[in-house]
Amino acid sequence: MKKAIAVLLSLALVFCTGIVVLADNTISSVEPPDNTASKNVTATYTPGAEPATYSVDVIWGDLQFEYKAPDKVWDPASHVYKDPENNLGEWIAAGDNTIEVKNHSSEPVVVSFAFGYAEGYGADDFTYSFGEEDSIELPAATPETTPDVKVELTLSAVSVIEEFEGPETIGTVTVTIAEPSEQ
């Protein structure tokens, strides 16, 4: 019984005295009557990263052409039809031959257009054009704008094309999207 009373008295003395709290090398004393201590909690804000994000739409037109060969000329001396001089025929657009690129990216992009001839065709047969520029830089998208470029593929005859069964692949258009180079 004496031990129990001694323990109770010891506990009573402990609870009646101030308690020292250690936090972050700062000493605070708990003061009666509330037996509390306070310390402000601080924080700093680090914004989340805004990584470069690329999202580009490529909208293809039909990219179909018809080659209209020149009308032959009858040669009364040889009794055969011949190709006319200075008439190479023409490439006629058979649909919408545009390529449109829309930049939804958070960064500017460089859009380049290229044409590759299919096997059996080359610059000796026809030339191609995408208009004034084969490459253009589009700025980053904003909430108000979606930068875009629209080009039209045209073909021009360089020589008379031999007859072929159609439709036949005469080439491939490639659109390349790249980051602008640092100047």
Overall average pLDDT: 86
Q: Just give the CATH class of the domain at 56-178.
A: Mainly Beta
Quantity of strands, as a count: 14
Cα shape: rod-shaped
Helix/strand-derived category reads: mainly beta
Question: What share of the residues lie within helices?
Answer: under 10%
**What is the C-alpha radius of gyration, as a whole number of Å?**
40 Å
Largest sheet data: 3 strands, antiparallel
Question: If helices are DSSP runs of H or I spanning 4 or more residues, what is the number of helices?
Answer: 1
Assembly context of the chains: single chain
In terms of DSSP E residues, the strand content is 35-45%
Question: Which residue ranges are poorly predicted, with pLDDT under 50 across at least 5 consecutive positions?
Answer: none
Q: Could you describe the 3D structure shown?
A:
This protein has 183 residues and is mainly β. The chain has a domain at 56-178: Immunoglobulin-like, CATH 2.60.40. It has 1 helix and 14 strands. Strands 3-8-12 form a 3-stranded antiparallel sheet, with no helix packed on it. It has a 3-stranded antiparallel sheet with strand order 11-9-14, with no helix packed on it. Strand 5 and strand 6 form a beta hairpin. The radius of gyration is 40 Å and the shape is rod-shaped.
